[in-house]
Amino acid sequence: MRRLLWLLVLAAFYAACIALVQPDLPRLWAGLPRLLRWLAGAFPPDFSGLPDLLRRAAETVAIATLGTSLAALLALPLTLLAARPVAPLPALYHPARGLLDALRGIDGFVFALIFVAAVGLGPFAGMLGIALHSAGSIAKLWSEALETADFAPVEAALSAGGSRAQAAAVVLLPETLPQTASALLYVWEFNIRASTVLGLVGAGGLGQELKNAVDLLDFARVLAILIIIVALVLAADRLSVLLRRRLA
Amino acid sequence: MLETRRGLVLRGLGLSLGGRMVLRDISLDVAPGEVVSLEGPSGAGKTSLLRAAAGLLPHAGQVLADGGRPALVFQQHALAGRLTARGNVLVGALGRLGFWRPALGVWPAAEVAAAESCLARVGLAGLGGRRAAHLSGGQRQRVAIARALLQRAPVLLADEPVASLDPANAEAILTLLRGLAREGGLAILVSLHQPELARRFADRRLRIAEGHLWET
C-alpha cells in the first residue's frame, strides 16, 4: 500500500514535469534533418585562427583558477563560522550556513550575468561570478571536512590553553589538508567546465567564441571549439585526479 | 587561598552528564612529587574526573592546581597524525603564544628547543621530525607526555596512559611518569586499569565507583 502510494506520487510528479516541458517528438523529427545538415557541415572542424582560440582557452583556465582562488579566500571565514567544532560564535552558525547555501544555490552563470551588468563585459565579470558561487560550495565541503575530523587533537590543544582559533589553525587545518585541498581541486576542475560557457553571457573565455560561431551558424568553427573544450576539461580532470591522488 | 606548591586539590567536585550523576562530592589532594593512581571499572568516572579537573567539563566544586591549569595526557594520545612529533609537542606551548606565529608555523626558537628537550626527556631524541602517524603506540604515548611537559604545568593528569600498550611499554611509560614526579616534582594523578601496575608505581591508590572516591 505504502509502495503504491509512492508510485502514485512519482507518477504525478512525472506527469507535472511532462505537462511543463511538453516533449514533442514530431518537432524533434522535423528538426533532425537540420541538425544532421549542420553536423555534416561541421566537418572538417575549422581551426583557423588557432592562436585566438588558445588565448580564449587560456582565459577560461584563468577565470576558473582566479575565481576558485578568490572563492577559497571568501570561503575561509565562512567555513570557520559554519563548522561546529571551531565556530567561535554559535549564534552565527545558522546564518553562516544559510549564506553558504544561498551562494551555492545561485549558479555562477547567474552571478556572472549580474556582474557583467555591474562591471562590464569580459573575463573579470566571469571570475567574480565563479568566485561567489564557488565560495559557498568550498565552504560547505570544507566545513564538512572539519566537522568529521578527529576532534581529539583539537581538544588536546584546547586543554593546553590554546584558543579555538589556534587549535583550528595549528591542528585542524593541517589534519584536514588532504580533504580540503582535494575539495578545492574538485571545485577548480568543475569551474573549468563552468567557465567554458560563461562567454554566452559576455563574461569571457571560450564561450564567447562559441556564441559568435553559433550566431553565424559556423558549425565547423563550433566543432573546433567543442574539441578544444573537451580537451581542456579532460586535461583539467586528469591533472586534478593526479594531484588528489598525491594528496591522499 | 591556595598556598604555593600544594600540587592538585579537588574539593566537592560534582559532575552530571546526560542527567546522570557521574561524580559526587569528590575531594582529593595530590602533593608535588607524588603519583596517585585512580582505579575503577569502566564507566566508573575516571575519565570524567580527569577531564573535569583539566577544565574540559563544566563541574561543581573547586579545582585548585599549582600553575592554574593541569596538563592532561589523553587516553588515546590525541595526537595530530599529519603533524610531526615536534609539531604535536609544540601544541603544548599554545597557551603562552599568540595566534599568528603558531598559525604560520613560525614557532619561537626557544619553544622549538624546549620541545626537542621534552622529546629527549621522554626518550624520543632525534624523532622530532617524524610524523606522529608513523610512530609506534608507545612512541605516540611518549609524544603525548612530552606535549603535556611543554605545557610546564606542575600538575599532570594522565588518563589510562598505558591502556593500549604492551607490558614492556606500559612499564616504561609508568617509570617515566614516576621519574617526572620524583625528579621534576610534578603532582601526578593517573588512571589505571591494572591494579598490579598501580601497586608498583603509585604512592597512593584511589578507587572510584558510582561517582564516589575512596582510598585503597
From TrEMBL, chain A:
Pfam families for this protein: BPD_transp_1 (PF00528)
Recorded superkingdom: Bacteria
SUPFAM superfamilies named among the record's database cross-references: MetI-like
Membrane-topology annotation of the record: Multi-pass membrane protein
Keywords: Cell membrane, Membrane, Transmembrane, Transmembrane helix, Transport
Any Gene Ontology CC annotation: plasma membrane
ABC transmembrane type-1 domain ranges (all copies): 57-240
Transmembrane spans: 61-87, 108-132, 219-236
Family: Belongs to the binding-protein-dependent transport system permease family.
NCBIfam families: PhnE (TIGR01097)
PANTHER family assigned: ABC TRANSPORT SYSTEM PERMEASE PROTEIN P69, PHOSPHONATES TRANSPORT SYSTEM PERMEASE PROTEIN
Protein name (database record): Phosphonate transport system permease protein
Source organism of this protein record: Belnapia rosea
Lineage of producing organism: Bacteria, Pseudomonadati, Pseudomonadota, Alphaproteobacteria, Acetobacterales
From TrEMBL, chain B:
Highest taxon listed in the record's lineage: Bacteria
Coiled-coil residue windows: none
Keywords for this protein: ATP-binding, Nucleotide-binding
Protein's UniProt name: Phosphonate transport system ATP-binding protein
PANTHER family, alphabetized: IMPORT ATP-BINDING PROTEIN (PTHR24220), TRANSPORTER, PUTATIVE-RELATED (PTHR24220:SF659)
Organism: Belnapia rosea
GO cellular component: plasma membrane
GO molecular function term, any single one: transmembrane transporter activity
Domain ABC transporter: 8-216
